From TrEMBL:
Keyword Signal: yes
InterPro entries with a match to the protein in the record: CarboxyPept-like_regulatory (IPR008969)
Signal peptide residue numbers: 1-26
Protein name as it appears in the record: CarboxypepD_reg-like domain-containing protein
Length: 374
């Protein structure tokens, strides 16, 4: 066979996760000024945020910003329309008390943008629907999401045959009512290869909690957030880091893909019947870092929730089963962190159920579910 039946999509999760280990309760002050690289003049109202978290702020009219953050290592994004975005690695251990001065270089491409046309051709709208499906996802949460400013999107299905490429001229704003967030997503790249269903996307999300929710709606949102977290890649990586995958509902097995001699270019899956522990997938180096390290593939079954009806398809007559995924390392070893993130955003190839859940099911890395009774 060419691929397991359970695998509907293959995706590299190119989400630039912030590199934070154990988040402590102590708060640190990150402050600075944003200015123009060429003129030295301040850039007012630039957006400053910690990627994949709820920590973000806008600079004031004098280009100054002030952000209180937990201890840790982060990727900071500084963004302003008309300028190239700046990515800055920040460790609270090395914070400068006097603050920072960030210089943004003007973006000729954005400054020369022509007026956006109100009327789009039918192909643009078809491409937009494809982008929504493969970027936001087709889960209940993904289907509920809405782009608030889709006119910033550039949808290109002409430059490469069979390829849809999407970029954005400004931060893409996404409303996720089910999870109670608005995402400000700095889209770096999106590619969808139509022939083989391969999807790749990379970007920097900021999660902005909806502060207008009633108590009843907030309780519902909290339940939906916990449901989205359970069985997710974030949940899996956290449980591997903590060494309690079985207690968290994950069953792990080694999966071997053996070339099929009768069908060149294809393979046969061989699944080991014996479960493995999280400890068999990780190693600690001399610096005390926790490294994910394994060969071949790891078959992941999450037993605490069934597949969603959207995953099977509403017209399907198949009985819903456990959520089944596959992970594969794209490198020899990969550092992972207690919050569920990892050092290289391109380090893990994910297939199956976890890959099917897209941006519409994402949660910020500072999210913590209620303690389990287990």
């Amino acid at each position: 066979m060419s691929k397991p039946i359970s695998i509907l999509f293959k995706i590299v999760l190119g989400l630039f996760l912030f590199l934070c280990g154990n988040i402590a309760f102590a708060q640190q002050v990150f402050q600075g000024t944003v200015a123009d690289y060429e003129t030295g003049e301040v850039v007012p109202y630039a957006t400053v945020f910690i990627t994949n978290t709820t920590f973000g702020v806008s600079a004031d009219g004098n280009g100054k910003f002030y952000l209180s953050i937990p201890e840790g290592n982060y990727e900071v994004i500084i963004r302003m329309l008309g300028y190239n975005s700046l990515v800055f690695s920040l460790s609270t251990d090395d914070l400068k008390p006097q603050g920072y001065r960030f210089l943004l270089s003007p973006s000729e491409e954005e400054l020369d943008l022509v007026e956006v046309k109100v009327n789009r051709d039918p192909a643009w709208y078809r491409n937009l629907e494809s982008f929504k499906a493969y970027f936001l996802g087709t889960s209940e949460n993904g289907n509920s999401c809405k782009f608030l400013n889709d006119t910033v999107l550039r949808l290109d299905d002409q430059s490469e045959a069979g390829m849809l490429k999407v970029s954005a001229t400004d931060i893409l704003k996404i409303d996720n009512p089910n999870l109670g967030y608005r995402l400000d997503y700095l889209l770096e790249e999106f590619r969808f290869e139509r022939n083989d269903g391969y999807v790749f996307y990379a970007g920097y999300p900021l999660f902005i909690p909806d502060s207008t929710l009633s108590r009843a709606k907030q309780r519902k949102v909290e339940k939906e957030r916990e449901k989205a977290y359970r069985g997710s890649l974030q949940h899996l990586i956290r449980s591997i880091y903590e060494g309690n995958t079985e207690n968290q509902g994950f069953i792990l097995r080694k999966l071997y893909r053996i070339p099929d001699p009768s069908n060149p270019g294809k393979f046969v899956n061989q699944l080991d019947s014996n479960p493995i522990s999280a400890g068999e997938l990780i190693a600690n180096n001399s610096e005390g870092k926790v490294l994910l390290s394994f060969s071949d593939y790891v078959h992941v079954t999450y037993t605490e929730e069934l597949e969603s009806i959207e995953f099977k398809g509403r017209a399907s007559t198949e009985k819903l089963g456990n959520q089944v995924s596959t992970i594969h390392l794209e490198m020899e070893d990969l550092e992972i962190y207690a919050n569920g993130s990892y050092a290289d955003p391109f380090g893990i190839l994910v297939e199956g159920y976890i890959a099917w859940e897209r941006v519409g099911d994402l949660l910020p890395m500072d999210y913590s579910p209620k303690p389990s009774n287990k």
